[in-house]
Design brief:
The protein is mostly helical and 138 residues long. The protein contains six helices and two strands, in the order H-H-H-H-E-E-H-H.
Length: 138
């Protein structure tokens, strides 16, 4: 299984389990609340990830968002991730959004290498999060 396939499968599993464990961002429509989940892990989780160096690109040069009005990636230079909520929302979830919506693995070889690194690092973060939240049975 490729890194991207493994990431997609684990992300899907997280979404399912978070919703079934009342991590809901919207009580009317079932959306996983990644912010609440991140907060449940705490800032110590972010420090562990940061100090490990295993998600350095994700933290220092997080993924950008493709803007609809002019199809440019914004912000031009994203600020580094500095907390556990942003690790998931601006990091892992943005990698997922870019990948699933067809905006990863489409650029130059350098872009593709960065895409692979971001997917790999996001997968590692999710795996670590599943270990740190054993009650969720991810």
């Amino acid at each position: 299984m490729s890194q991207s396939d493994a990431f997609t499968a684990l992300y899907k599993r997280f979404e399912h389990v978070l919703k079934r464990n009342d991590f809901l961002a919207n009580k009317r429509r079932a959306e996983a609340d990644w912010k609440a989940f991140a907060n449940s892990l705490g800032e110590s989780f972010f420090e562990e990830v940061r100090q490990s160096g295993k998600a350095a690109t994700l933290i220092k040069e997080p993924p950008r968002s493709l803007m609809a009005e002019d199809l440019t990636w914004q912000p031009e230079v994203p600020a580094p991730i500095e907390n556990v909520v942003d690790l998931f929302q601006r990091g892992v979830c943005q990698v997922r959004n870019n990948f699933i919506h067809g905006e990863k693995y489409t650029g130059s070889p350098d872009d593709q290498a960065r895409d692979e690194l971001l997917v790999s690092e996001s997968l590692w973060v999710l795996r670590l999060a599943s270990e740190r939240a054993p009650d969720l049975k991810i």
